Amino acid sequence: MDAVNYSNFRKNLKTYFRQVNDNSEPLIVINKNHKNNVVVLSKNEYDSLMETLSIQSNEYLMDKIKRGREQVSLGKIKDKIRK
């Protein structure tokens, strides 16, 4: 993850926004007071993180994922693709 100081970020805002979106990598914006640092990420990355958090907080879905992984590791899967 790249980092840039606040002044540089402000001066080159458009460039950094493009970089964040093109690379799908967050960018840390560093301030003099490190408690005020922020992370900039693309909307797609944000949506992906929120979806992951939503799934991980859903016990029913996580149980299904766990059972599916166990079935795969035991070879208890069927090919449902029809040709």
Automatic annotation (TrEMBL):
<comment type="function">
    <text>Antitoxin component of a type II toxin-antitoxin (TA) system.</text>
</comment>
<protein>
    <recommendedName>
        <fullName>Antitoxin</fullName>
    </recommendedName>
</protein>
<dbReference type="InterPro" id="IPR006442">
    <property type="entry name" value="Antitoxin_Phd/YefM"/>
</dbReference>
<comment type="similarity">
    <text>Belongs to the phD/YefM antitoxin family.</text>
</comment>
<dbReference type="InterPro" id="IPR036165">
    <property type="entry name" value="YefM-like_sf"/>
</dbReference>
<dbReference type="Pfam" id="PF02604">
    <property type="entry name" value="PhdYeFM_antitox"/>
</dbReference>
<dbReference type="InterPro" id="IPR051405">
    <property type="entry name" value="phD/YefM_antitoxin"/>
</dbReference>
